[in-house]
Amino acid sequence: MRIIAIANQKGGVGKTTTAVNLSACLAERGIRVLLIDLDPQANATSGLGVAPEEGLSLYECLIDQKPISDKVIATGRDHLAMVPSHQELAGCEIELAQQGNHLSRLREVLQPLRSSGDYEFVVLDCPPSLGVIMTAALAAADELIVPLQCEYFGLEGLSKIVEIVELIRGGGTNPELSMEGIVMTMYDPRTNLAQQVVNDVHQYFSAAVYQTVIPRTVRLGEAPSYGKTIVEYNPTGRGAEAYRAMANEFLHRRGYDVPAPAPSPAGGSGTPRATPA
Description:
CATH class: Alpha Beta
Shape: globular
CATH architecture: 3-Layer(aba) Sandwich
Helix content: 25-40%
Structural class: alpha/beta
CATH superfamily: P-loop containing nucleotide triphosphate hydrolases
CATH topology: Rossmann fold
């Protein structure tokens, strides 16, 4: 099992969209995924059609040492489970900071998942800040994926998160943390700036950058308001195609034998399962 943090301290860059839709596209291929919503805004939770509810978030696990298995719920989608969020998580920032083990606490909470064998990937949707929860997520994760908006300010944010990763590694909290990927999001081919940002990121982080670029589409913005993933809401659109391609690239990087998706009028029910090569 691998723990994947989806993080960017800048909001509005497609972080939750990427966490939700990457998870959905992996599950579509038969990969067992647990999506954990760590953002008190609970956008990933509502984006999957789950109503945020007090007592279902990781708050009690982080503060009161409740087992994480008590918080896992079904999403109504094959192979995809989740731990919802709630605004109560906002209180964790202060309470965790007062504990001596605040950086390692989330890793301890997630440890039973590693031994359970229930999931192949655990995806952490991190809050858009450099607070305690985000740093604890990086301390717990095996890999980090950074969604990066194709705008100038996205480059500034990337440098900051690289600094945080180096601090987490260098401080001994999680020396094995891998900056696995950068995903360019909200790409608009009509603007020269978008192409320039993509070129700059490739120049400095070539090995980490995903070849798949996520376009700016209305459908990607609409899907969460219906409690649906993009492969449910608009299965043949550009957004769904992009996230399926990203999922393929994600699996290919990890040595999976990834067959081409089979056409399906239902938008994915005919997609074959990916298996480790």
